[in-house]
Design brief:
Blueprint: H1 2-22, H2 25-48, E1 80-82, E2 88-90, H3 115-123, E3 127-133, H4 135-138, H5 148-153, E4 158-164, H6 170-182, E5 190-195, E6 215-218, E7 221-224, H7 239-250, H8 252-256, H9 260-265, H10 269-278, H11 289-309, E8 314-318, H12 322-327, E9 336-338, H13 359-374
């Protein structure tokens, strides 16, 4: 659709140029104004449609980057580390560390992950609930203390072990269960694995990478260790290498060179897309949901098997997102309980591209989780 708009606008611009060359001075000035207004209108449309400056074509991970900077300006904050079992965790020693709640294992939980803590919870008449997920479970976009994990934890009947780590995925969820539940360190009363739309579109067949985090948090945003299309065995062992790959394979910097002109022209979404069409950068195919359901189900089966061995009930839920609300339907995944989209609205989400629910959305999710727990 965007390419069609660009072609149509190019034809209009060509007509205006022709009129300019064939007309008197006044008409020429009108043609120039028309050219400028047409370009501005197309640029506004391209940005509204999700286009990003510098990117030659739609990248599955372009929205993770807040801005682009020269490669030598990238800075890794080391918010996340990956332990010897391949589990990604938050590092409380990291520069600009901002987690208000962080246990000794590196999870945003009020409780340490141990059976002795579970025994104390039981002594207080509560059930121990373990939530496993990504940034939704972590509570991104919710105010402090308003995430669905925190709201469920305030219920007098429950104590929540929050294992939500931003940017993670189904392989991480399985690794968490293997390390803590199958490993005998923790036996909660119930495990809830919170799947999201991200789990259906990232790298469900990736390999665990002990010592190398799944996501680098940098001064330009989050950058994945993996990049689409390179296969599950290809990883970038530094934020700088991963960022350089994005520049070289997705943006005008790779298409026309790392020079001042590329950085200037790349500020326009329209010009970036035109450069992408005229050049032949190594494109990376986007990941489609139909390609990723089977690996996610495989991870679910492993999780279910490990929990059954330890006699721990487990429930898989699919959290609502903006797209599901617009479609008025969540994808059907065997063995997964969809939360919403009925009962949720777009007012439960921020303006713009952020797909994480606001306080009201987290409150509704917490209510739905309570219903599941009392069944």
């Amino acid at each position: 659709m965007l390419l069609q708009k660009i072609v149509f606008s190019a034809l209009v611009i060509a007509l205006l140029v022709y009129a300019y060359l064939r007309s008197e001075v006044l008409v020429r000035w009108i043609s120039v104004a028309g050219l400028l207004l047409g370009f501005i209108a197309l640029e506004i449309y391209a940005r509204h449609a999700g286009g990003r400056p510098y990117f030659c074509f739609a990248s599955p991970f372009q929205d993770c980057l807040a801005e682009l900077v020269p490669p030598d300006s990238i800075r890794d904050y080391h918010f996340i580390f990956c332990d010897s079992m391949g589990v990604n965790k938050l590092d409380g020693r990291a520069e600009n560390h901002r987690e208000p709640v962080l246990n000794g294992d590196g999870f945003p939980s009020h409780y340490e992950f141990s059976d002795s803590v579970v025994a104390n919870i039981h002594a207080n008449g509560k059930k121990a609930i373990m939530l496993i997920g990504d940034s939704y479970t972590y509570g991104l976009s919710a105010e402090l203390g308003m995430s669905f994990a925190e709201q469920l934890n305030r219920d007098p009947g429950y104590a929540v072990f929050n294992a939500g780590i931003p940017g993670t995925d189904a392989p991480q969820y399985e690794a968490v269960v293997r390390e803590y539940i199958a490993g005998g360190r923790l036996k909660p009363d119930h495990v809830i694995v919170c799947l999201t739309s991200n789990d259906l579109g990232h790298f469900p067949d990736r390999r665990l990478t002990p010592g190398v985090p799944l996501l680098y948090y940098t001064n330009v945003g989050g950058i994945y260790t993996y990049q689409g299309g390179l296969g599950p065995d290809t990883i970038f062992r530094s934020a700088a290498d991963a960022y350089r790959y994005i520049l070289m394979h997705y943006t005008v910097i790779g298409a026309s060179g790392d020079n001042a002109l590329s950085w200037l022209l790349g500020r326009s979404v329209v010009i970036s897309r035109i450069i992408g069409r005229l050049s032949t950068p190594a494109k990376v195919a986007p990941v489609h949901i139909s390609d990723t359901i089977d690996p996610v189900i495989s991870h679910m089966e492993h999780i279910r098997s490990m929990c059954q061995y330890r006699q721990v009930p487990v429930t898989f839920v699919l959290l609502p997102c903006r797209v599901y609300l617009q479609q008025k339907k969540s994808p059907e995944i065997p063995g997964v309980v969809p939360i919403g989209p009925d009962g949720f609205s777009l007012d439960d989400y921020p303006q713009g591209s952020d797909d994480h629910p606001l306080n009201s959305g987290h409150l509704k999710i917490a209510r739905e989780l309570k219903k599941l727990l009392v069944r």
